Amino acid sequence: MQPLILEAEAPVRITHPDKLLFVDPPVTKLANLEYLVQMAPYLLSHLRDRRITLVRCPHGIAGHRFYQRHVPSGAPSYIPYREVEGGKREIVIEDVATLLFYANLGTIEFHAELHRLSDPRPRVLSFDLDPSDTSDFEKVRKTAFYVRDTLSELDLPSVVKTSGASGLQVFVPLLEPIAYEDSRRIVRFIARYVEGRWPHIATTARLIKERGDKVYVDAPQHGPTRTLIAPYSVRATPLATVSTPIHWSELEGGCRPQDFTIRNVPARVAQFGDLMTESVAPASAATIAKMLNSQR
DNA sequence: GATGTAG
DNA sequence: CTACATCAACGCGCT
DNA sequence: AGCGCG
Ligand SMILES: [Mn+2]
Ligand SMILES: [Mn+2]
């Protein structure tokens, strides 16, 4: 095989560029690399300064898949890491070259923590909505609007994105960071409120067998050790879906997670920008403080 | 996909 | 040399 | 005190 080198911040050696990662629609490793190059300005803004977990499918999405949190041995010297106790090197992605290096290893998904390495406090509230019945998107959609409307009454504007799988995630950007102790309190409180008000649709039951066919408002997913699929990450799904921030009006109009894929998201973002950062004015600490106080 | 290690 | 295993974690709220 | 969950 002739060696293929992609020039980024460093030259990245690419192996098996024609490896078919997705069958239908067909997506080769090279096509995935091209997607990442195009989307890097947006994707990287959600990966930088955070701890990253990868999902790798070296033999395509039908093959064996596994999570990876640590830099593999033998990585080139341009690959950064965060050295942690025990000598383990946690994955950090700051530039295109690193993105491409991991993509060459068969990485499909990039998951990121909510807070940054440089600050242990999140600058966002997050609500992970997981349908029990993965085919029941209508119920997830409803729950997302319940969460939005509840937040709205508290003067907290929110933005929604598809996870790229079967769920949705709702975010409240904050002007200033707040401690997880506080953000978790608020997220838990709102999750329980939504469950209480729409008990036939939403649940916060941690035990799967108690959830029935309701949507799990996964408040525990908002925490210092948890990650969420990054905006604009491809998912290892048959359709090569992408976790995509959308307008509430699009959700109202009946859009579906499968509408956003590796094929069409780059054009969408080129046209409309990153809705994750542009569609909502961050809430102030004062609004949050009010929220916290009223709850105690 | 690449590495480390056991056979 | 080939074959095979490994590739993440905890935290943490609840029963 | 142990467990189930993502
Ligand atoms: Mn989810
Ligand atoms: Mn979840």
Automatic annotation (TrEMBL):
<dbReference type="Pfam" id="PF21686">
    <property type="entry name" value="LigD_Prim-Pol"/>
</dbReference>
<feature type="domain" description="DNA ligase D polymerase">
    <location>
        <begin position="28"/>
        <end position="275"/>
    </location>
</feature>
<protein>
    <submittedName>
        <fullName>Bifunctional non-homologous end joining protein LigD</fullName>
    </submittedName>
</protein>
<dbReference type="InterPro" id="IPR052171">
    <property type="entry name" value="NHEJ_LigD"/>
</dbReference>
<dbReference type="InterPro" id="IPR014145">
    <property type="entry name" value="LigD_pol_dom"/>
</dbReference>
